[in-house]
Specification:
This protein is an alpha/beta fold and 261 residues long. It has a single domain (3-253), classed as NAD(P)-binding Rossmann-like Domain (Rossmann fold, 3-Layer(aba) Sandwich). Helices cover 44% and strands 15% of the residues. It is built from nine helices and seven strands. It has helices at residues 3-6, 22-33, 45-56, 72-85, 109-137, 162-182, 203-206, 209-217, 228-238; strands at residues 13-17, 37-42, 62-66, 91-94, 140-145, 187-194, 249-252. A seven-stranded parallel beta sheet has the order 3-2-1-4-5-6-7, with helices on both faces. Helix 6 (162-182) links the parallel strand 5 and strand 6 (187-194). Helix 2 (22-33) crosses helix 9 (228-238), helix 4 (72-85) packs parallel to helix 5 and helix 5 runs parallel beside helix 6 (162-182). It is globular.
Length: 261
């Protein structure tokens, strides 16, 4: 294969959760630009339909579904509805996530459970269901969207999201373990770990000028990530260009995590 062919996703179908806005929207569009047909899912159907329309305008097929991936019943319905529309699922991008901004000494069990129900429990059981289909199809790619928050501790003053951080740290271990267990079935499992991106999840920092300045001061590249900064990495992990890559965490954080302090 020549280099463009390595990145070509023509004939593949991807499912992107949390695909109605922010990084998820960018990833869905990026996969379509590489040739894939895309299923977009999130709790907000109208947002998914908007992204699906943008993908169809690029000449690819797209479907929009409403689903709360923290609920097992929604996971079952999402996979069933998806497979009623497409013959196979080649790529799963687990982007749906939730963060709860509360200082560590004030974090409640209810908030903790809500974060883990989506970020880890729902992600795993959706992956399990899709992986079963991929096994029958002879292989596939699962890509988790993690976070730089899993790589280093962060003070409450800068980022009071202890449950989110813990869930993403667990996701790194899950990524590696799934990669080992699913490799015999031709399924690769990797993750990206975005840093601070200009999305709604970053608003609680961006809307606090002092906290925002502190964040930017720690960014070697001097800015937060934008929509286009993550999609190339996901296209790489979904394509033949990464055929010998599994169990890896690809960090996309502007250099934040490699600093000594």
């Amino acid at each position: 294969m020549n280099t463009p062919q390595l990145f070509d996703l023509t004939g593949r179908t991807a499912l992107v959760t949390g695909g109605g806005r922010g990084i998820g929207e960018s990833l869905a569009i990026g996969l379509a630009e590489a040739g894939a047909d895309v299923v977009i899912a999130s709790r907000k159907l109208a947002a998914c339909e908007r992204v699906a329309a943008a993908i169809e305008a690029k000449g690819r097929r797209a479907w929009a579904f409403s689903a709360d991936v923290s609920k097992l019943s929604d996971i079952e319905r999402l996979v069933d509805e998806t497979l009623s529309q497409v013959s196979r699922l080649d790529i799963l991008v687990n982007n749906a996530a939730f963060a709860w901004g509360t200082p560590i000494l004030e974090h409640t069990p209810e908030a903790w459970d809500r974060v883990f129900d989506l970020n880890l429990r729902g992600l795993f059981f959706l992956s399990q269901r899709v992986a079963a289909h991929m096994v029958e199809a002879g292989g596939g790619n699962i890509i988790h969207v993690s976070s730089m928050a899993a790589l280093r501790g962060v003070s409450d003053a800068l980022e009071p999201t202890v449950a989110y951080t813990a869930s993403k740290g667990a996701l790194h271990t899950l990524t590696r373990d799934m990669a080992i267990k699913l490799a015999p079935h031709g399924i690769r499992v990797n993750a990206i770990a975005p840093g601070a991106f200009d999305t709604a999840m970053f608003d609680f920092i961006k809307n606090d000028p002092a906290r925002h300045r502190a964040f930017l001061a720690r960014m070697p590249l001097g800015r937060v990530g934008m929509d286009d900064d993550a999609k190339g990495a996901v296209v790489y992990l979904a394509s033949a260009a990464s055929a010998f890559v599994t169990g890896q965490i690809l960090v996309i954080d502007g250099g934040w995590s490699v600093q000594s302090s």
